[in-house]
Amino acid sequence: xxxxxxxxxxxxxxxxxxxxxxxxxxxxxxxxxxxxxxxxxxxxxxxxxxxxxxxxxxxxxxxxxxxxxxxxxxxxxxxxxxxxxxxxxxxxxxxxxxxxxxxxxxxxxxxxxxxxxxxxxxxxxxxxxxxxxxxxxxxxxxxxxxxxxxxxxxxxxxxxxxxxxxxxxxxxxxxxxxxxxxxxxxxxxxxxxxxxxxxxxxxxxxxxxxxxxxxxxxxxxxxxxxxxxxxxxxxxxxxxxxxxxxxxxxxxxxxxxxxxxxxxxxxxxxxxxxxxxxxxxxxxxxxxxxxxxxxxxxxxxxxxxxxxxxxxxxxxxxxxxxxxxxxxxxxxxxxxxxxxxxxxxxxxxxxxxxxxxxxxxxxxxxxxxxxxxxxxxxxxxxxxxxxxxxxxxxxxxxxx
Length: 400
Fold this sequence. Notes:
The protein is an alpha/beta fold. The chain contains twelve helices and 14 strands. It has a single domain (3-399), classed as Rossmann fold (3-Layer(aba) Sandwich), CATH 3.40.50. The protein has an eight-stranded mixed β-sheet, with helices on both faces. Helix 2 (156-169) crosses helix 3 (183-194), helix 4 (213-227) runs antiparallel to helix 8 (307-318) and helix 5 (247-261) packs across helix 7 (289-302). The longest helix is centred in the middle third of the chain and has 15 residues, at 213-227.
């Protein structure tokens, strides 16, 4: 099978033909989807003017999304699936025109799958601030240039507010389920806290109730890696041409993030001290296999993502505090009325299980007596790799 991360599809060696094609040529200034590119399976909703929590005005926002299945006449079978930091709307489907990678949760969503598209109408939006069709820093502003460094600060609550507008536009008053992992779990939790009357079931996977100081610190070095790249140019790099954007800084940020998504056990077992070249490791000029692995995925990432978007979305993750202005985390969680699944992975070093335990304790309507904790060597990525176990728990939730 293909190895998955919470943000990307990571094929095991050897590199596939599709990966080789993706890496041909010099890196673009941005890997964002742009108007005029193949649309693929995307649909678009123009949602009008938008005001952020901080008071910034966007004159018009657009959300890109994909759907599977059929909406029932009663509009009571809609399931919202929310992606992680560098994911997008392409939950299910092959790589192809408009979609540089295959769907990131194809074992979970589809006909007969745990989120069965023969029963449920599944909607997956690219979040506000993203770079795969939704309004974000790489989008064109009213003056005809990219928003770039002018794009406003967004919070998790801003992004959920945009998703609410999308739900309204689609005529969906109540979600049969809202399901998200990692950053998507932050959005899912915010949905259930801010509008409990609109969420019937909830799944929060490998996500915390609030971003901690340790997590902000880990994020800060990734942002700095991008910003110190001379080609970042303060965020105004879109006209730099292929090979002249901040791809080195973005690739380095991605490499740093991958170390948070996986575990020492998985990396040590998978790579050991294997050497990538014919040279003796005591000499010079060769590389360890794990270094080449990180390089490959950092470079691959620059072909499908945007540096300014990375900054925008990580800043939004840092803003996450479900208890802000609500009397604290416990008071906020007590608002949830949805039947709730809370799931974590025992080896997750990005969002450790203490966060999931706190969410589980605070929500009065969980479907389990205790938090569901999966045992896995894959760390944070376990919620997308351990699809048999995760899928079984989602089936339970959707049957409740």
